[in-house]
Amino acid sequence: MSVIAPKFKLSEFIKSLLDNIFWIILILNLIGLPLVFMILFAIEMPVIHGELLTPFLALSWIADPSRTLPIIQSFMETDMFKVMAFPGFGFAALLAAGTIFVERKMMAKIQLRVGPFYCGKFEGILQLMGDGLKLISKEIIIPAKADKPIFWAAPVIFVATAAAFVALIPVAPGWVVADVDLGLLGVFAVIGFFPIITILSAWSANSKYPFIGGIRALFQMVSFEIPLILSLLGVVILTGSLNLSEIAASQSNFPWIIFLPVGAIVFFITMLAELERIPFDLPEAESEIVAGWLTELSGMMYGLVQLGTYLKLYAFAGLFVVLFLGGWNGPTIVPPLPIELIEHGIEMGPITLKIAGLAPLLTELITHEMINGTLWFVLKTVGVIFFIILPRGVFPRIRVDMLLNLGWGKLIGLAFVNIFIALGLLYAGVLGPGGLQ
Amino acid sequence: MSTDSDKPATDVKSEEKPAPAAKPAPKPVAKKPEEIPVELPAFEKGISDKIVEKFGDKVEVAFVKEDRVRINVSRENVLDVAEFIRDGLNFDHVESVTGVDFPQDKEIEVVYHIGSYSDSTLARQIIVLATRAQREENPIPGNDSTKLPTLRNIFYSVEFHEREIFEMLGVYFDGHPDNRRLLLPEDWADLPPLRKDFVLKGR
Amino acid sequence: MMNEIMPGLALQKVDERIMTLNVGPQHPGSGHMRLVVQIDGDYIVACDPDPGYVHRGEEKMAEYRNYILNIPHLERPVIHDSCNVLYPYVLGVEEILGIEVPERAKYVRVIASELNRCIYIMYWLAIYGIFLGHSTMFMWPAGDRELLIDLMEKMTGARVTHAHFVPGGVRNDLPPNFEDVCLRHVNYFEKRIKEYSAVFYDNPILIARTRDTGVLSRQDAIRLGTTGSVLRASGVDYDLRKKEPYDAYDELDIHTNVMKEGDSYARSRIPWLDMMESCNIIRQALQKMPKSGSVRVKLKPNPKGKGDQTVYKRVESGRGSLGCYVVSNGKPEPYRLKLSVPSFRNLIALPYLLKGEKLGNMPSVYWSLNYWPVEADR
């Protein structure tokens, strides 16, 4: 006892335990319960089987196995689920976490190293969780002369904008958080917001190195926005619509990359520049300006910025897939679900095995089409992310004047070539809105 | 091989020694039973002869060894000799500059090692050019009599080396554009470190 | 006013257009040296190098130690390349003491020197990769030089700061199976460094960043007194192993790599070519080495030379020609010892080259001068 905790006193231990219990009960009851009731007051409770669902009813139904699945199904149909879990934040964050892990492992293998190895039973798979815990536990240091409100708000706004970007990407037919008719214009607007956040964060830190880094980030992002927008116009011309779900649906026979390879290449390069990935990682050029505009961020603020960056990565890759690679279209490789069997159950003599509620779930919500579409989307996105990560191991950093030459000169020229190709294809009658004619 | 070299001369006009010829000068201290005349290497001898021919008794050839020829000059003539070495003999850069402190002679010696890149016959040769500056007991670097003319206008590569000798030994170089501290910290207020009076603590 | 408080400081008037940037010793892009850079927009107007942050006073300390005690002391300027830093000192002391080194020791010294040269150049290439933002170029050389460090460990017992050369030869003989192991390692090493051309030297972004930057013409390279790979990249064919061969180099066949452009790309490529040449030299030396014999001439304790002698010997190290000037006055300690290091000699090219360069080119030009801050400060 004296080795582990030399000053241990039983009475003090029990006292601290009781203290904690007291505070937990107090907060739960005085603050938690009113909060729950206020939320329940604001959220619409679904109607299941003709009865309004209240919390008590929900608890009693969950105990009944024949009613669990309908409850889950109705929760999945709400907007909240779409925003938070499936095509929204949860799904994107999961893919982002996977991206970070794959990036570190892949970089390590290219560089003859091992990468994360010890954290987690299998080749360091829990490394990200360890890093997240570390970042949360660090002290957040604010420079004395920094502009405090903006400095605190900048990473949060960054994540919010990245999440807004994620919200516009359709994953499967009908599964998109915000189905906007002018979806592509919304994407451009959100992309145009990122340089503002970067410069706000850099300026509010009030120090020389973030200043240089922020200006460089501004140069980079602004000079690559025009080729970005121009390269996507080819697809819009051929599809005739700005709605991302329609663009994805129109590629049911062939992806647009076959007809517009130049635009795809230009978009890929500008995507690397907007994401500040190597070879375009000037804003964070470590050997010249310490860490660029991220220099003064510490602890969870840095963690938020990293989360936002990887959400942006997923969103850009998803955009590339939707616009050029065919979205969720692909040959059906998932075997069709045995609906008949599920509806009527498996009959073995006098006993019938049946999971109630599974059939409507599978026919209305998680349809076969949706599973197939999601699978193809994820596969294509992972492929694009692989190609985004790959230049990190191969290229050194590009220089500022070379970057500006590229963005304002060569890429705009190539993007215009792409538009001419698209116009040519359209007016020659080869392609048009709706597909091959 | 035995290397005979004279003690770097106390006074620069070496009238008491015989003219540098094939015979080495007799050693003042050792008592050898006989002198074996050593044949000096011919090519290096040619170089030292050319210098002696031009400057006569203003220079003193300290030794002529394989690949190394050492010339001692007074501080008034060092600029002329260096210019002749560059223009007449085709040596084009200074490899290193060293300062040696001789408190017993009250002088500080500055030694230049001059080499040649462009002339392929001189690729191995180094001319060792040595001058002496006066030394004072209580030095005020920059403002006392320890001064030498700078060779920077003749050989550009001595710039940083001479700055180092200024801060380490206190020798001021007249005409050097930038006599400033190089390696020592800006607030060094003690003796120049490479002098013999500056004793390391604990020794 | 300030001058009275702290001699050596001076007030400067601030120009509104020119910004003074302090690329200081604590900076991921500068090594242990401070560069005071004045920039006008993106162009460097003036650059004032400020070395001396790692100055230990090695030359002063060397005057208090006798010739043998100076061995572990003088190898510290460059710890990986320690054999090459000791080499001119050891040659000089042997001349002072009048010792002749056995034949096998000469070959062992040649092999150790070449291995150290490769180890140093790999480390230098790794840091060059970091300066340019190329993390793979950092990891690959840092990993591949372990092959050679293992060899040095077998030979001398230490990974860095080997303290292997002594006046009179080498401290210990090679371990029994060394020739085979060395040949295997060196062959694999050569195969590995040939792959660097794919990831580094033929990389279009690298070529775009380093070509035609920091161009040092042949005249200037000679006039500024630069040495080593900087000199050979500007078209001057000068390698001390060929021009003034020492130890066993006159019996080996050496080819000097010369490039004419004199830009940063050439300066970064020459050491890589030199490494492949070193592999050839090691193979030849292993072949020609006498298979047995002593490697050391035993000295009496506290050896001293006779009378007053001054010796200047020089050697081609990983960075250029390293010289050592020893003044001896008959005592067991040297009267004065000066190391003329190539990094200090190449430093004069830095303010000369950086004037008028873009700020983005500063890391690539600065490190391509093969500058090792610790050695320049001694």
TrEMBL record, chain C:
<keyword id="KW-0812">Transmembrane</keyword>
<feature type="domain" description="NADH-quinone oxidoreductase subunit D">
    <location>
        <begin position="309"/>
        <end position="378"/>
    </location>
</feature>
<dbReference type="GO" id="GO:0048038">
    <property type="term" value="F:quinone binding"/>
</dbReference>
<keyword id="KW-1133">Transmembrane helix</keyword>
<keyword id="KW-0813">Transport</keyword>
<feature type="domain" description="NADH-quinone oxidoreductase subunit D">
    <location>
        <begin position="132"/>
        <end position="297"/>
    </location>
</feature>
<feature type="transmembrane region" description="Helical">
    <location>
        <begin position="119"/>
        <end position="140"/>
    </location>
</feature>
<comment type="similarity">
    <text>Belongs to the complex I 49 kDa subunit family.</text>
</comment>
<keyword id="KW-0560">Oxidoreductase</keyword>
<keyword id="KW-1278">Translocase</keyword>
<dbReference type="InterPro" id="IPR029014">
    <property type="entry name" value="NiFe-Hase_large"/>
</dbReference>
<dbReference type="Pfam" id="PF00346">
    <property type="entry name" value="Complex1_49kDa"/>
</dbReference>
<keyword id="KW-0520">NAD</keyword>
<dbReference type="InterPro" id="IPR001135">
    <property type="entry name" value="NADH_Q_OxRdtase_suD"/>
</dbReference>
<dbReference type="GO" id="GO:0016651">
    <property type="term" value="F:oxidoreductase activity, acting on NAD(P)H"/>
</dbReference>
<keyword id="KW-0472">Membrane</keyword>
<protein>
    <submittedName>
        <fullName>NADH dehydrogenase (Quinone) (NuoD)</fullName>
        <ecNumber>1.6.5.3</ecNumber>
    </submittedName>
</protein>
<dbReference type="InterPro" id="IPR022885">
    <property type="entry name" value="NDH1_su_D/H"/>
</dbReference>
<dbReference type="InterPro" id="IPR014029">
    <property type="entry name" value="NADH_UbQ_OxRdtase_49kDa_CS"/>
</dbReference>
<dbReference type="GO" id="GO:0051287">
    <property type="term" value="F:NAD binding"/>
</dbReference>
